[in-house]
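Hypothesis: this fold can be encoded by more than one sequence.
Test: take the structure tokens below, design a sequence, compare later.
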């Protein structure tokens, strides 16, 4: 009887929205339990800083039941710049994707690289890493996994090699995140830092991250080519290998090329505008929207087709955009219940005698495991950075390093946890099991963690 009962009880990972709503409910209950308190704050060099030693308790102000649900629209309103940036960028990329520019362009590039067998893996991974650190390439990796697998098999490798080239290439850039608006951009905006500032050290660490990934894939590919039985997906290769099959590349047109150039131009213009004129999400949104509309018209979609593709692109990004509202809703509850500063005060008291290096590692570990529950980078940034920033201020830790801890913790875990829809989707189209992926990737993940911890320690030492 008990056997059948436990058999029917199957654990299901809660939906991210459901989990965030649960956190909002818990936060609401905590406004009646945790003593309300506040720090004094002051403006200095454009940043709102917490005044050390100014914490004092205030009258308890527990939020109402209705506030639980009001928190979500309030969160969407307060995070409006980010929400609409995500929607408009998603729409712009939806247009360019509809023209076939992304798939055909990368397909052609990878096909050309295939003739240079020794260079195919590093060059392909570098291409995807550039897309990872510039536009935050994430969901789109799923599209390219089958192409990577076909090319890998053609060159005598296996499906794992092909999938890893795409997944780990994009992930390397995502970890670097030098120009990634969805993680570094959002985290820095919360921390009141100049967008994409501190890119120099991130670039150095990114090089080591990419080298580790390329080395891992190349060593595995060489082993498989010498002895196919050592392939982690050997049984899959026995039944589905297409070695020797010609790769049919759809024609990459000039119009599609112009579409890609427009997106590249938008990225370059945004970076220039940010560093020269102090642009924010609104200006970046406008540039991507303009580039997307031009790419659609030039790409032959027509006016109606362009806007239909834009709507489709927005639908694809809806999950990430709405998470912003839920994540900001948590902060809305904590702030309105006046307990966010009490939580910060308690954490800083516990960490006061801990060396700064260990505080940063603790933040990194927290962000790493939190990504299991909140797989959206922007959502995680908006949930945790309002807590981490004042803690780092009170402990005299530079906010840039706090952003590093968030960035690395979030990005590395994207290729580890099964709650990552992007990872699971990419593995699914490659017919690779999650267990097989772990067997292949776990050592690299450990190396990445070590590299990032060393990088954060160096950042502390040089006063980054």
């Amino acid at each position: 009887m008990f056997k059948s009962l436990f058999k029917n009880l199957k654990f299901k990972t809660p939906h991210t929205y459901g989990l965030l709503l649960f956190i909002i409910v818990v936060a609401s209950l905590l406004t009646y339990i945790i003593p309300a308190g506040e720090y004094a704050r002051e403006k200095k060099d454009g940043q709102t800083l917490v005044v050390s030693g100014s914490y004092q308790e205030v009258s308890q102000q527990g939020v109402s039941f209705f506030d639980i649900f009001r928190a979500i629209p309030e969160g969407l309103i307060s995070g409006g710049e980010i929400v609409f940036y995500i929607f408009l960028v998603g729409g712009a990329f939806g247009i360019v994707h509809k023209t076939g520019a992304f798939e055909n362009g990368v397909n052609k590039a990878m096909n050309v690289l295939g003739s240079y067998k020794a260079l195919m893996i590093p060059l392909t991974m570098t291409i995807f890493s550039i897309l990872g650190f510039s536009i935050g390439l994430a969901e789109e990796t799923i599209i390219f996994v089958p192409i990577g697998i076909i090319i890998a098999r053609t060159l005598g490798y296996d499906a794992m090699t092909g999938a890893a080239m795409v997944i780990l290439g994009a992930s390397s850039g995502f970890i670097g995140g030098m120009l990634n608006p969805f993680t570094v951009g959002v985290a820095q905006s919360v921390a009141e830092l100049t967008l994409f500032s501190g890119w120099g050290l991130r670039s150095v660490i990114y090089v080591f991250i990419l080298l580790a990934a390329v080395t891992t894939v190349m060593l595995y590919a060489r082993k498989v080519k010498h002895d196919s039985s050592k392939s982690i997906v050997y049984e899959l290769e026995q039944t589905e290998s297409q070695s020797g099959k010609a790769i049919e590349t759809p024609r990459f047109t000039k119009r599609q090329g112009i579409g890609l150039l427009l997106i590249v131009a938008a990225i370059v213009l945004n970076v220039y505008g940010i560093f020269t004129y102090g642009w924010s999400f609104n200006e970046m949104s406008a540039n991507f929207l303009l580039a997307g509309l031009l790419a659609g018209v030039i790409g032959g979609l027509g006016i109606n087709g362009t806007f239909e593709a834009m709507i489709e692109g927005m639908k694809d990004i809806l999950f990430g955009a709405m998470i912003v509202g839920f994540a900001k809703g948590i902060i809305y509850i904590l702030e309105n219940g006046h307990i966010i500063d009490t939580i910060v005060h308690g954490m800083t008291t516990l960490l006061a005698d801990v060396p700064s290096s260990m505080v940063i590692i603790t933040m990194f570990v927290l962000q790493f495991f939190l990504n299991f529950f909140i797989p959206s980078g922007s959502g995680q940034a908006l949930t945790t950075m309002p807590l981490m920033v004042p803690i780092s201020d009170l402990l005299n830790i530079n906010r840039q390093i706090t952003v590093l801890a968030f960035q690395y913790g979030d990005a590395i875990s994207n290729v580890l946890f099964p709650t990552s829809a992007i990872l699971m989707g990419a593995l699914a189209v490659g017919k690779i099991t999650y267990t097989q992926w772990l067997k292949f990737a776990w050592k690299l993940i450990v190396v990445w963690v070590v590299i990032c911890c060393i990088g954060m320690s160096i950042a502390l030492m040089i006063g980054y």
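Residues 199-226 form the longest helix (28 residues). The radius of gyration is 23 Å.
Hypothesis status: open.
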